[in-house]
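In the previous chapter we treated chains in isolation. Here, by contrast, the input contains two separate entities that must be folded as one system, with a combined length of 1012 residues.
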Amino acid sequence: MSFLSIIRRRLIFLVFVVFGVTVVTFVISHMIPGDPARMMAGDRATNEIVENMRRQLGLDQPLWRQYVTYIGQVAQGDFGISIRTQRPVIDDIKRFFPATIELALAALIFAVAVGIPLGVLSAVAKDRWIDQISRTISVTGISTPAFWLGLLLIYLFYGRLGILPGSGRLASGIAPPTTITGFYTVDSLLTFNWPALRSSLIHLILPALTLGFVHLGIVTRQIRSAMLEVLQEDYVRTARASGLPRRTVLFGHALRNALIPSVTMIGLAFGDLLYGAVLTETVFAWPGMGNYVVQSITALDFPAIMGFTVVASTAYVLLNLSVDLVYMWLDPQIREVS
Amino acid sequence: MQAGTDSIVSVDDLSLVFPTYHGDVRALSGVTLDVRPGEIVGLVGESGSGKSVTAMSVIRLLPPGMARFTGGSLSLLGHDMLAIGERALEDIRGKDASMIFQEPMSALNPTIRIGKQIVQVIRQHEAISEAEAKKRAAALLGEMQVPDAARVMRNYPFELSGGMRQRVLIAMAFSCNPSVLICDEPTTALDVTVQAQVLALIRERARARGTAVLFITHDLAVVRQLCDRVYVMYAGRMVEEGRTADLLAHPLHPYTQALLRSLPELAEPKQPLAAIPGTVPALLTEIKGCAFRWRCAHAVARCTETPPFVSPGEAGHRAACWFAGEIAPPTPARSMPASVAAGEATSEALVRLEGVEVGFPLGRSWLGRPKAMVHALNGVDLEIRAGETLGIVGESGCGKSTLAEVVMALQKPSAGRITFDGVDLASLDTAALRTVRRNFQVVFQDPQSSLDPRMPVWRLITEPLYVAGERSSRKLKARAEELMRQVGLRADQIGRYPHEFSGGQRQRIAIARALALHPKLVVLDEPTSALDVSVQAQVLNILMELQASLGLTYLFISHNVAVVRHIADRVAVMYLGQVVELGTAAEVLDNPRHPYTRTLIGAVPKLSADTEIAAPAAVDLPSNVNLPEGCFFRERCAFKAAGCEKPQALAPWQESGHQVRCHRAAELPGWAQA
């Protein structure tokens, strides 16, 4: 099966996922006690005003018709108006979502870029000092709460040493770059806005370290054990018996195979990073989706909650798709079988 | 380092230990071996004899932390291999000396294309361009009889059969014209017809290129067919060395003699085999003197002193035994008096299969319909008679194991009927089926993995009883003791765990477990394939004894023709899910009438014959997804003629019970096999 047909198949699947997600959130949002019309109208509104509000919001319609209207709007990229912020939900998402993704990606890159070499090194030097250090790092990573690590890093690098910023996405004097992707780093790079690039990068360091540290531990561990297993394989012996140098055996033959089981885990890690971001965002005052969603939930802001849910589940499906594509790229047998 | 200056490989008095938690395991103790230019040298021994360790040591392939050399010397083309550094070793491996291994299925990197894997090795050792290396790789594949080499270069390993992968590995090993090729059981995992092809290939290519070969195997018949000289190892020592024909005809060392005697090939069918008593000594402590003396019939007090490696007669044929040349070689076992087997097979059918077909769906469309079917069994008519041993012979993928599952009512046939004691299995409900299944028990190939390592032996053996409802530990233990005695193990060891037993003992435990419920039919699925020949002899003996005393019926599945010839009353040969030939063991295996049976038996290496093994053409088994039209064997058949395009029926050949699925059975020339 080709990459293209997998992509096509998943995109069709995505339609069903969005449908399912919207049905469930829609039904739940209408079953939860609390009257959005009354909330919007305010405490002192008369019943008449509330009724008007209800009609205006379409809440007097039967549920299925409300749903059809809603899904029609979603298809056009319209998630309605947020009850809390009174702005179109889609605008809020465009503003906050990229910040979260940027943070999660940076954390993932950190975890993978450090975790994979560390895991390989650890497996090759099994039980030697470098392995001990890497195992200590991974156990520490897995068992350290992110908020605590965040506060510690802020205290150290911002409070004590004063070399890194402790909050926000940009220094206060710097204007955000022109929006292209919504990622400050990418946008400033694309618009050759060097001061913004520098500032956005150094603002990313501490939150990304905080968020990525847990996953660094997991990735290191996973790669280490996968490598240990792969190094026992017959084809590694074949490669050694053919006189291939150690470097080629390790990185050309063993690592690729060791990565196969790790890819799923890294994909799942990214999902985790999106959740985890909520906490990290709070600690670092990162203007991301986490705060927005928490506030929307407390305010029973259903258009916002549903909008977020749809976007998040779409992101999840696309993420899984990319995991599968990486998988197929790594393992030729999956290309045949799936 | 001057020992054998004309040798390519020269191992002299080499000793090596594996440091373990329990102490040093003395894997090699003073091993001496030479490989001279252009010769094919065999290295034989049972598991744990140190033959693979010796082979791996030649190119220093054992991981540095795992093994420690404690004495002796090792040189390859004049290089002192014990002193040389890792970088220099990399230059030697794959270029001066290359190696192929046992498991072709896992010996190639699954994520890299075949072509790239070969090219990588060539370019590692020679400064040539990518294009040139590719050209050479394709030429090498062609030389190794890989059909459509250009396509195979682009394939990934999983797209090739085991035989093809081994050819690829041989191509890779020959790619830089090594002076010596080290082969570690390269055909053990392959079917016999494929083994014959691969052996022929190694022999021809090595001869044509003048490459010396060090060939490690446990199979004396393979040695007989392939090697000029042979070394025999036991417990990390060299016990005998000589020209192949001499050594096998007149073995000097009692171990070599005992080993030959335990082979079913040389014994009268259905008679007890001469197993070697006892087991290989543990190598954790240093053994002074002869390591075989505890199992040796000729051992005397002097054997506690290390015997010299001497040559009593012909030069070059020597053995490490005080009595080398004094002990008579084994009497030809064929002349053993034939006694009638105690258990007598009846002609009454215990299990009858009529037109049995089994298909497995291959992938499913989104509606759940199978996209294609794997046709595992295609119309099998067979009866298993009470008290007999029915041998099933065939290569991988022929449906042997599916047949066993169907017979044991573990797999429902998609068509056809199976009756047990006259009862149609399809008519039984789940509960009744469960009761009937108690009559069928199975012994699998590998007792290492078929026994739960966390259960004590008595639990393992009586688990079937426990499942059947017996909960009293006292009764279970009593039954376990009884069963242990039946299979020749000590009853006081029922509290031990599987890892405390040797491979042969574990297989006996598996047999005891199969007997716990007093079954009528025992399916033996390659029960001795994972065992050494001396142990195989013990297990076959036990099986024959049990059959005689308990009146058991065996369905004996094996790819080993010699073993089946020895133990079976009747034999069915399977090919692509069909029985192609059926009759008594003597009829089918001594006088085969189906061209496939002839191909199969012709490919089995013979100990006695001087003829070189016939290598059938390199063809993969036809697909059992798209079955061929007419006779399934047609495309590979040397006797193909008009009429073969029609489906063939299993019909009696002449008037006997010997049935053959070939319309030309009567026309084939007589079978003359030494």
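The mean pLDDT of chain A is 85. Residues 297 and 314 of chain A are 20 Å apart (CA to CA). Compare these points with the single-chain example from earlier in the chapter.
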